[in-house]
Amino acid sequence: MTTGCVILAGGAGKRMKSEKPKVLCELLKKPMLGWVLDAAEDFGFDKIGVVTGYKREMTEEYISQNYDKISTYFQDEQKGTGDAVSRAAELIKSVDRVCVLCGDAPLMNAETLKNALTLHEKTNAGVTIISAEISNPFGYGRIIRDNSGKVAAIREQKDCSPEEAEICEINGGAYWFNSAELLEALPKLNNKNASGEFYLTDCVEIIGNAAAYICEQPETIAGANTRKDLFELNNTVREKILYKLMDEGVSFITLDGIIIGKDVKIGADTLILPNTIITGKTVIGKNCEIGANSHIEDCTIGDNVVLDNVKAVSSTIEDDVKIGPFSQLRPGCVIKKGVKIGDFVEIKNSNIGENTAVAHLTYLGDSDVGRGVNFGCGCVTANYDGVKKHRTEIGSHAFIGCNTNLIAPVKIGENAATGAGSTITVDVPENALAVERGKAKIYENWHGNFERKKK
Ligand code: UD1
Ligand code: CA
Question: pLDDT at position 340, please?
Answer without folding.
Answer: 98
